[in-house]
Amino acid sequence: MSGEVESQRERSAPSRAGCIWRTGALIWKYLVGVFLCGGLVSAVAVVGWSLRLVQRYTLSLWWNKSRRNGDFEDFIGAHDKLSQHVHWPNWFLRQNFSQTKDELGLIRSLFHSLWQNVRIGALGIFNTWVLTAPSGFLWVFAWYSGWDNSFNKGYEQFWVGPATGWIGIFIYIAVMLYLPAAQARQAVTGNWRAFYDFGLIRKIIQRRRLAFLILAGLYSAVSVPAFVMRAAPGIFGMKLPPEMTEAQVLSWLQNYYFYCSFFVFPAYVFLRLAAGRIYANAVAELYETGEIRYEELDDFEQRIFHHMELTHEEVEPAGIVEQARGCMGFLMRPGIVFLTCLLWFSFIAQVFVTQFVFFDPIVTWINQPLVQIPAFEYVPSRLKGSVRGIEFPFMLAAFWLFTIARKFFVRRP
Amino acid sequence: MKKLNRRTFIHGSLGLGAATVVGSAALTSFGQETEDIAPILPPVERKDYRGPNAIIIRFGGGVRRKESIKEETTYSPFLLHELVPKGTFFPKMEIAQIEDLATSHGEGTLNIVTGKYDRYKDVGGKLFGSRFEAKVPTVFEYLRRFYTVPEHQTLIINGEDRIDEEFYTFSNHHMFGASFRSNVLSLYRFKTFLLAEQIKAGEFKDKEHARKEEDLKKMRALDHRAKTPVQSPEIQAFWHNWKRHYGTSGFVNPRGDRLLTELAVRALKELRPRLMMVNYNDCDYVHWGNASHYTRGISIMDEGLKSIYAAVQSDAGYRENTIFAIVPDCGRDSNRFVEVPFQHHFGGRSSHEIFGLFIGPGFKPGQTVDRVIQQVDVAPTIGNAMGFKCEFAEGKVLSEAIA
User: Fold this and answer.
1) Could you say which of B251, B290, B334 has the minimum Cβ distance to residue A148?
2) Which residues of chain A are within 8 Å of residue B343 when distances are taken between CB atoms?
3) Chain B residue numbers touching A150 (CB-CB < 8 A)
4) Looking at per-residue confidence, does B34 or A343 come out higher?
5) Partner of A1 at 20 to 30 A CA spacing, among A243, A256, B174, B292?
6) Mean pLDDT lowest for which of A80-94, A113-127, B206-220?
7) Quick one: A51 exposed, middle or buried, by C-beta within 10 A (0-12, 13-18, 19+)?
8) What is the mean pLDDT of chain A?
9) How far is the C-alpha of B36 from the C-alpha of B208, rounded, in Å?
10) pLDDT (tens digit, 9 = 90+) per residue, A359-381?
C-alpha cells in the first residue's frame, strides 16, 4: 500500500526520485497481482485491475494519434473523469489518494480501488463466461460421459462424449474469434454492455484480422509454459519425499503455485494489453476512414475522441494499388480466418492434453487462466477439504446480490 | 543355459542338419501340432503333459496394494478373504527399481510370463505403442517346448483395449519362438474370425467385398510375425459356438473385463487349456480422471476371479488339479500433489509395489510370506509347479510357496 501512496507523490518529486518511486510502485503492483492470482475469488480483482490498465493504455495510444500537443498525463489530469488514469491503477487506494481521500472519507478511500477492481472484474468475468462457459460445461460432460461410456463399453452411445466434446470445441473457437476484441471493448469503454456490440466488434475484427491471428498465436504460445507448470506436479510430485505430511504437501503446492503466478500474472496482463492495442488502433482507423460513425462509438469513446480531437477524414476513392491490396486481402481472408481457428484449436488442445496428465474435474474446463480468471491454483480438493472452486459461484452470487441491493436501496448523494 | 560341451554340440549339429531338410516342409500352419514342426533346435524329448493346469490372473491394469490387499480399503473381498487363505500369499512382491524400467501393462505382463525384466521399446517405434517382443521365452513356450501341449490349450485371454498385447504369445528367442506360441482369445480375434467367415460366405459384394478383404488383411497383418494368420480348428470351433450363443452384433456378449471372464470360463469348458492367462485391465480407465473407474474395475476383476475359481471348482478335470497365480501387472502411483493420485507412469514407489498369490496343488495353503520378492519370480515358480525350468528367466523359484 505504501507503493500506491508513494506513486501519488512522485509527480512532484525530482526525476531521479520519481524513477525510484515508479520502480517501487511497479514492483508493489506486480507482487500484489501475483499474490491475488492465488485463488479464484481474489483473482477477480486482477481481472478488474487489468481492465482498468487496458483502458489507460488505450487512452495513451489514442493520445499519440491525436493532434493535440502536450503530455498525456497533463491532459488526463485536466479532465475530472479521466484523472484516475494519471497513474497506473491502484490495487487498494483510491486513485490520486492524497488529493481525493477527503471526498469519500478515509476508510472508503483506502479500499476504493479494491472495490473498483472487484466490481469491474466481476462484470468482466461475467461477460466472458456468458460466452465461454457453455463450451466449458460441454467439455465437462463430454469428458465424463465419454470415459464413463468407454469404461462401461456402451458401444451403442459411443458417439455422445466425442460429439459433445467437438461441439464444445467448435463453439469455443467461434467464441475466441470474438472474445478478445469484446473484452478489450469492455475494458476501454468501462461499459459492460459494450461487450455485446456485435456489429462494431465485427468491424474491428475484420479490420485487424492479421493482428487477431497473431494474438491467437500469442495465446497459444504463452499458454504452453502455463500448462506445463500446471501439469508439472503430476510428474515431479513423485520425486518428493513420501514422508511429507499432508500439511507439508499443501504448503509446498501453495508455494509452488504462488511462484507460477510470477509468470501467469504478467502473461495475462500482456495478452489483455495486446488485445487493447489492436482494439485501439482498429477503432481509430475505422473512425478516421469513416467506417465507424461517431454515433456508433460508446459514450466514453465519444468524449475521448472529442477531447482528443480525433477526427475522421474524407476518404479518397481507392486507387489501383489500394484496390489490388483490397483484392489480395479478400483472397487471403479465408486463409487468415482458418489459421486463426487453427491456433485457437491448438490452445484448446493444450487444455485437453493437460487433463490427461493432470486431471481436474471442472475448474480447468470452464476457466483457462489466460482467458477468464487468472487464478493459478490447483491444490487437490482433499488437501483443502473442499471441492476446488466451489466457493467461487457462491461468492459471485453474493457479489451480484450485493450490487443489485446497493443499486436499489442506497441513495447516491 | 546349459554349458555347451562337445556331445551337446555334435547332437545339436546333427539335429540342425536334419531340420534344414525337413523344417521348411513341416511349417505349414501354426494351428498344427508341434510334432509336425521339424526340430531346427537342439532336440528335446517332448513328453505328454500330466502336471497341473495353471491359470495366471493379471490383476490389472495397475492396482495399488491399498485398494486390493489392504483390509481396511480393499475393493477385492473375494481375493483377500476367500483366496488368500487358500494359498501362499506374497504381499511384498514388487517390480524392481531399475533405471528406465517402465511400470506399465505390457511390460508387467512380459515380466510375469518371461521371468525377466527388460526395457521394452515398441517395435514400430510408435510413441505410446506397446508392441513389444520378449527376448526370452514365455512360460507358454517353455511348456509347449517340453510337453506335447497343443497350441489351443495355451491361451491368453485379452481385452479389446490393448490390441498390442495380443501378440505377446511368443518371444523372438532363437530356441523357442513362434513354433511354441500360445493362442489368444479376444474380441479382436473374434472379429477377425467373423469377418473371414462373412467374406467366405459371400455376404459382401463388389467394392464392399474388396474393402472387407482389405480390412481382413490389415487385421491379420497386425501380427506380423505370424506364419499363417488363421487360428487353429479348435479355436475356430470355439468362435463358432460363441457366435451361436451371442450372435454377431457385439452388443449381447458381456463387455469389458466381464468379457474376459466369460471367455475364460467358456475356454475352460471347450478348449481345456493347460495354461491360461487372463489379462484384466479396465481399472486403468482411472487414467482419465474418474476415480470410481479404478475401484469399480477392481471389484469387477474380483467378481471375475470368483467366477473363474467357481468354474474350476465345479469341473472335475480342473478342481484338484489347477494352480492359480494372481499378480498385478503393475501398481499405481500415490501422488498426493494431484487431484487423481493414481497414475502409474511416473515411477512412484507404489507403482512398483504389487502382490502375488499362488494357490493349488504344490503350493502351501494359508501362508503369508512377508519378504520382498520380485515380479519376475512368478514365471519360474509356475514353471517349477508345472514341471519345466525357465532357464532364461532371471527370477527365482519361490521356495517358501512350494509344498
Assistant:
1) B290
2) 234
3) 285, 288
4) A343
5) A256
6) A80-94
7) buried
8) 86
9) 38
10) 888 888 999 999 999 999 888 88
Is B336 an interface residue toward A (CB < 8 Å)?
Answer: yes
Q: What is the pTM of this model?
A: 0.83
What residues in B contact A381, CB-CB < 8 Å?
339
**Are the Cβ atoms of A153 and B255 closer than 8 angstroms?**
yes
The three-class DSSP label of residue B398 is coil
Nearest to A181 by CA among A268, A46, A275: A275
Residue A387 has pLDDT above 70, yes or no: no
B348-378 as b/e, with b when 16 or more CB fall inside 10 Å?
bebbbbbbbbbbbebbeeebebeeebbbbbb
B262 touches chain A (CB under 8 A): no
Residues A387-391: contacts with CB under 8 Å, at least 24 apart = A388/A360, A388/A362, A388/A363, A388/B339, A389/A40, A389/A362, A389/A363, A391/A40, A391/A41
Q: Is B39's pLDDT higher than 50?
A: no
Q: Identify the residue whose cell numbers are 468482466.
A: A124
The residues of A whose Cβ lies within 8 A of any Cβ of B are 143-144, 147-148, 150-153, 155-156, 233-235, 237-238, 240, 242, 244, 246, 249, 252-253, 355-356, 358-361, 378, 380-381, 383, 388
Alpha-helical runs (H) found in B99-186: 105-114, 139-146
Cα of A341 to nearest chain B Cα, Å: 27
CB pairs below 8 Å between A and B: how many?
A: 79
The larger pLDDT score, comparing residue A185 to residue A362, is at A185
Three-class SS state of A251: helix
Contact A151 B255 (CB under 8 A): no
- Chain B residue closest to A355 (CA)? B288
The Cα-based distances of B33 to A8, B29, B223, B230, B398 in angstroms read: 94, 9, 20, 14, 32
pLDDT tens track for B163-195: 888 888 888 888 888 888 889 999 999 999 999
B273 burial (CB, 10 Å; 0-12 / 13-18 / 19+) is buried
> CA-to-CA distance for B56 and B379, rounded, in angstroms?
10
Total residues belonging to chain A = 413
**Mean pLDDT confidence for A232-237:** 82
3-state secondary structure of B72: helix
CA nearest to B347 within chain A: A238
Name the residue facing B335 among A144, A234, A381 (closest C-beta): A234
Nearest CA-CA partner of A60 in A80, A44, A74? A74
Q: Which H or E element spans position A343? A: helix A320-357
Report the chain A residue with the minimal C-alpha distance to residue B349: A238
Closest CA to A294 of A282, A317, A310, A278: A310
**Burial classification of residue A70, based on how many CB atoms lie within 10 Å of its CB (0-12 exposed, 13-18 middle, 19 or more buried):** exposed
